[in-house]
Amino acid sequence: MVKGEAKSTESELCCSPAKKKKISLRKCHIIIIPIVKWNQFSPLCAFVDLSTCRVSETDLKQGADRDETPPRTPTGNAPSSESDIEVSSPSNDLEDERLAKELSLKEAAAHDLSHRPKRRRFHESYNFNMKCPTPGCNSLGHLTGRHERHFSISGCPLYHNLSADECKGKASTRDKQAEERTLSHRQDENRHSTRNQAPTDRQLRYKEKVTELRRKRNSSLNKDQKEKHMDHRQSHGASREPLLENITSDYDLELFRKAQARASDDLEKLRLAGQVSEGSNMIKTIVFGRYELDTWYHSPYPEEYARLGRLYMCEFCLKYMKSQTILRRHMAKCVWKHPPGDEIYRKGNISVFEVDGKKNKIYCQNLCLLAKLFLDHKTLYYDVEPFLFYVMTEADNTGCHLVGYFSKEKNSFLNYNVSCILTMPQYMRQGYGKMLIDFSYLLSKVEEKVGSPERPLSDLGLISYRSYWKEVLLRYLNNFQGKEISIKEISQETAVNPVDIVSTLQSLQMLKYWKGKHLVLKRQDLIDDWKAKETKRGNGKTIDPTALKWTPPKGT
């Protein structure tokens, strides 16, 4: 409470709802009063004539009880509100000093918040409407043994064939072991250090223990153990972790369990920090034709579809649906058996369709959304009009099934012949990726251009392109009979960008600098290895240029 002189002449203070009274501002005290309204606090300076009014001690106490966390103001915290001021009989300076002393005690009590529970931020509070996706789990307990609830498989004790109490026991054991390791490390640090420091007795004993535990590892499961593992798999399927006992040594299994718990703990910390949220819009699997595919990355499907764990797709028109019933009804009515657009290549059961993003916008958008589930760096989803899509299919008696695709700009300023390329997961490691790459360079040859893929490439895409460039260069060098070779000539004949050619030659250690000249070394060992692989592979997955029926679009 601050005492001072007021320069104003008069003010009005509401003494009661029915009557307003004018009071003098001479020789008055200034009281900072927080106004409580909708849980928001704002300071109010009220000039109170102490000759006609005083603040009731009882009301001060009630105000402090109602709000234990008043806001800070320049003169301190006031534990009462505007409604707590009572205009009554006069008071003298001694009573004012007593009230000020009691008020300071109330402030000190209000500042002591140790008895109050810590308020959690929004992302720190569990959503109790969510449940663990593991069948039969009540979401109680956590794999780390440090949390009361969980909502993901990574933290589910039941999925890991454990109970909540077992997880807590393992957590306490890990804590004790961590304390012992910390203590032993401190003891080792206190020892004198030398350049060739011998292992301590503790380290030697631990090494012998690990060796003994790994020596006891079973080479194979016995009959009873195999039956137990098979029964567990048949009973629970993919909803439970396979039984890991007796597969490896107890020591290695315990290390694996510790790594699982640590990873789960890290994920939980990310969730509490708001970086990972429960039920994030991540489609886990898609039903695509006769395959059920696990997704790799997030794709920006509409909200009502993105929150589903499983998405159902028509493999011909790429329409996405919510349930198996909707998919079955759609397949009964869908008349599509191949992609839209023009079929520009066919050899055997392999076909390639050219689809214009402007003419078939919905199909191309669905294709991009599907591709984003398996590509990390893809950014094109809905703006598909400036692109052409080349879709490779494999035909059977039911239709042309999607194998993969690549897209390219209709007018590329940097002569990119591929903007995005994807091979469906069920067709990977079968040679289709190189066929798509080879087909993109075949189109560049017809256009009489030199092409290169748009960067950045995904990890699998970079591996595929480097393998293709290596194969192209070795084939060219195997057929080359001259003594002088030019990077420009290789580029014009293969349609590969000179930068890609140089980087490939450097990776093969075939490009050297000697006496001011760059030399290309013809390494016969690499060529012989390539020829052996080509003979073993056969000509099953190759592109035949004579099967292409295509002319470059106008304006390109």
Structural topology:
Blueprint: E1 2-4, E2 10-16, E3 19-24, E4 28-37, E5 40-48, H1 57-66, H2 93-111, H3 164-190, H4 201-215, H5 223-236, H6 250-272, E6 285-288, E7 291-294, H7 303-306, E8 310-313, E9 320-321, H8 324-333, E10 342-347, E11 350-356, H9 361-372, E12 387-396, E13 399-409, E14 416-418, E15 420-423, H10 432-447, E16 452-453, H11 459-479, H12 487-494, H13 498-507, E17 511-514, E18 517-520, H14 524-537
Parallel strand pairs: 6-8, 14-16
Antiparallel strand pairs: 1-4, 2-3, 4-5, 6-7, 8-9, 10-11, 11-12, 12-13, 13-15, 17-18
Helix pairs in contact: 1-2, 10-11, 11-13
Radius of gyration from the CA trace? Answer: 38 Å
Percentage of residues in helical conformation: 25-40%
Strand content bin: 15-25%
Side by side, the strands of the main sheet go 10-11-12-13-15
Average pLDDT rating: 77
Q: Which word captures the global form? A: extended
Structural class, from helix and strand content?
A: alpha+beta
- Most strands sheet: 5 strands, antiparallel
